[in-house]
Amino acid sequence: MLCGGKKSYFAAAVCIITLTSMVTLSYLRLQRLSHLPKIIQEGSRCRGKITNSTITALKDNRTFIISPYFDDRESKVTRVIGIVHHDDVKQLYCSFCCQPDRKIYVSKAKIDVHSDRFGFPYGAADIICVEPENCDPTHVSIHQSPRGNIDQLPRFEIKNRKAETFSVDFTVCISAMFGNYNNILQFIQSMEMYKILGVQKVVIYKNNCSHLMEKVLRFYMEEGTVEIIPWPINSHLKVSSKWHFMQDGTHIGYYGQITALNDCIYRNMQRSRFVVLSDADEIILPLKHPDWKTMMSSLQEQNPGAGVFLFENHIFPETVSTRTFNISSWNTVPGVNILQHVHREPDRKDVINPKKMIIDPRKVIQTSVHSVLRAYGNSVNVPIDVALIYHCRVPLQGNLPRESLIRDTTLWRYNSSLIMNVNKVLYQTLL
Predict the structure, then answer these.
(1) CB 186 within 8 A of CB 335
(2) pLDDT tens digits, residue range 125-160?
(3) Which residues have C-beta within 8 Å of that of residue 21, sequence separation ≥ 6?
(4) Would you state the pLDDT for residue 333?
(5) Going from the N-terminus, what domains does the chain have, and what CATH number goes with each?
(6) Cβ-Cβ contacts under 8 Å for 412 (sequence gap 6 or more)
(7) Which major enzyme category is it (predicted)?
(8) Which of 13, 47, 178, 238 has the most CB atoms around its CB within 10 Å?
(9) How far apart are the C-alpha atoms of 194 and 177, rounded to whole Å?
(10) Angle, nearest 10°, between helix axes 184-197 and 415-428?
C-alpha cells in the first residue's frame, strides 16, 4: 500500500507539473500573439501630424514620448524612449502606417519601466512594439486604445532606420543643463579637455542656462562640436533637483536625467563608436595613455566582448586651490578654473565611489546614471591607476584639513594645450 501510495503521489506530481507547463506555455504564446501587429485599416493614409518636439505628452497626461528608435538587435521592434507614471500607465499601442500598400497596423506595446526610479512616481520607460512584417515604417503613433483615431494622433519619426557608418569616435552626453547654469570657465575648460582627449561631439539636454552660457553654446554649435536637445521637462512635470524622492510632490528626479541619458545612447547608437555618460564638471583623465582612443583600444584588447567601462569619480574640491595657473584674463569669467584645483579627497571608509561610463552604445539596452541596467556583454571597472574622473565641485568631505587631501596634478599634463585653446574660445566669444 505504501509503495502504491508513493507511485500515486509521483503520478499526480508529474500530472500537475505537465498541466502547469502547458498552461504557462499557452499563456506565453497568447501573450506573444497579443503583441503581434494587426491590420485595423486598409486603403488609408498616414494623416497624423508629425511632431518634432523633444517631449510630447499624450492625452492621458501620464505618458510622455521622447523619441522612437528602430532596434533589430533581438527582433524587429520600434523602441520608444518615454516617461510614464509607473502605476497608472498599463496599456499602450503603436500604430504603424505601411506604404505603399496603405495599411495601418497596430501592435500592443510592452511597457518596460526602468528599475532605477528612486521612488518617484514617473520614470524612464521603453515602450516596445513589434513591427509589421514586409514593412519598414518610417513613423509611429502611440495611443491608449487600439482603435484610436489615427488621423488625430501625433506621428513620430522612427530614428536609426537606416544603417550608418560611424561619423565620430566619442560623443559625450550631458544631461541635464538646468538651474540657470553659469559655470562658464569650467564648462569651456571641460569642452576643450574633451576635444584634447578625442571627443568630436557633445550632446547637451538643455533645460535652461544663463544668457552668457547661451553665447558660449552658440559658439560650440557653430563650431560643430555641440548639439543641443531642448529639454523642457518642467513644462510637463514637477521636477526635482534631487536624485531621490523626498515626498515633496515632485514627479521625477534630477530633471529626468535618466530618460535623457537613455535617449542619448539610442540617438548616437549608429553614429558614434563610443558614448560617454558624464556631467559638464567631470573629465575622465587617463593616467597611462595620452587620450581616450588609445586608452579604449587597450581596455578593449584586455576585455574582449565588454561594452561598458566604469570609471571612479574623485572629488577635487573647489574650495582648495593653488596659486599656480592664476591667469588674470580668466578672473573676469564666471566659473571655476580647474587648473587651480589639484587636490582630491581621499576615499572614505565603507563608501563606494560612484562611477561614470564610456560605453559601446550598440551593446547597451538600458542605463542608469552610475551603471547600466541591461546590456549585452560585460561591464568592466577600470582601475584608478589607468584612469579616474576628475570632478571639481563643492567638497563632500569639507572638514578635512588640506594636508589630508591627495595632491594629484595629472590635469597639468595638458596645461599648455588647454590654456591656449581656452584663450582662443574666450577671444572668439568676446568674453
Answers:
(1) yes
(2) 999 999 999 899 999 999 998 876 777 889 999 999
(3) none
(4) 97
(5) 40-157 (2.60.40), 168-428 (3.90.550)
(6) 339, 342
(7) transferase
(8) 178
(9) 17
(10) 120
Number of H helices, E strands in the chain: 6, 23
| Helical packing angle, 211-223 and 415-428, nearest 10° | 110
pLDDT in tens, 267-291: 999 999 999 999 999 999 999 999 9
* Torsional class of 378: left (φ above 0), alpha (ψ -120 to 50), beta (otherwise): beta
d(CA 81, CA 430): 39
Where does residue 112 fall: left (phi above 0), alpha (psi -120 to 50 degrees), or beta otherwise? Answer: beta
pLDDT at 164: 85
Beta bridge partners of 285: 388
The tens digit of pLDDT for each residue in 292-314 reads 999 999 999 999 999 999 999 99
Beta bridge partners of 275: 171, 359
The predicted-structure confidence for 200-244, as pLDDT tens digits, reads as follows 999 999 999 999 999 999 999 999 999 999 999 999 999 999 999
Instruction: With beta carbons less than 8 A apart as the criterion, state whether 84 and 113 touch.
Output: yes
* Between 108 and 27, the higher pLDDT residue: 108
H or E segment to which residue 113 belongs:
strand 110-113
C-alpha cell at 406: 591627495
Q: What are phi and psi of 346, to 5 degrees?
A: -75, 165
